[in-house]
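Budget justification, computational time. The allocation requested in the original proposal was used primarily to generate structure tokens for proteins on the priority list. As evidence of use, we reproduce two of the resulting records. The first is shown immediately below.
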Amino acid sequence: MARRTPSQLNCLIAVDKPVGCTSHDVVARVRRACHERRVGHAGTLDPLASGVMVIGIGQATRLLGRITQDTKAYIADIVLGSETLTDDAEGEPSRIAPCDERHADMAFAHGVLEGFIGTQMQVPPAYSAISVGGVRSYKRARAGEDVELPAREITVFDADLLAVSDIEGSPVWTVAFTVS
């Protein structure tokens, strides 16, 4: 068996993943750009999500498991008043509920978000990037498979309301989350 040659490049880098690109696409681009086969990432982002991905190159790939144990931060725009078939902005609305003026009130939003703080069980959506039998859950769900994921323990350390705005008459809460 041939031995792997030592990596010429050993580092962690941050890549701003755009919407529409998969995490695997990012890794493939880094492999080509660096001419290095040993490239990995510290957490999958859904193709519809944009954000910073930590990429390990060469020997630094050994550190990726430790990085995923740390907290993560996200900024989310939460549009109130509708639910989609995919639990994201891409899906068709499946339920519509009226919102009243209190949903546009920052004090009310702060109160609701305080209830998110702490440890709880959360069922991930079928359209998440979680791997099920080696295939991403969102791929199975978009192929029409019925995907049921088990509840996981999560901790929300902070849910900081950044803004309350409006999109086509629906209140939108922009929230910075720090989570497990």
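The second record produced under the same allocation is shown here.
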Amino acid sequence: PKDKMVFTGNPVRQDIANDTNKQDALAHFGLNPSKKTLLVLGGSLGSRRINQLIEKERDFFKKHDIQLLWQCGKFYFSEYKKYDDQTNTKVFAFIDRMDLVYATADFIISRAGASSVSELAIVGKPVIFIPSPNVAEDHQTKNALAISSKQGAILIKEKDLDSQFSIVFSDLIQNQKLQSELSDNISALAKPNATKDIVDQIVKLIKH
């Protein structure tokens, strides 16, 4: 019943909401503070298609003076660690200090699982979602659409990456207005108090 439904959002790690200093975060990863940083997230296991995209577009990023913080996933680390060049590209199997990772980012490429979408709304950076098509009921595409339909993120489907990615990303990095709009709109959809709201609802139900 509709009157029993409560929209809480998903619980997320509390540390990502920390006001982490960007310069400290860049220094932690050995990144150049004078360059824009693209954070690439494929989930803890990694995303073959996203990794293939980043590998293919390395010259494109270099041309635009974009440095990469690339979380390729443990399944793919042995294949992509060769691109960790200590100057423009940092490759990790997994990163546990997500507060620092998010603080470094000017732009983010991510899958669109529920936790990722919820965290990125709180982070409030310009995001390109590349949903996995290989999940139950194509739920990642629906998650990404819930944000992109409100102009809070850019959605590119895997099948359109080769034709669209460089055009879309070029426009994003050169368009300050678009960057600000994406940040503002995704931030407006954030539910930073989701954990507390869920617990409050549980307590309320117990008391009744």
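A brief technical remark on that second record: The first strand starts at residue 36 and ends at 41.
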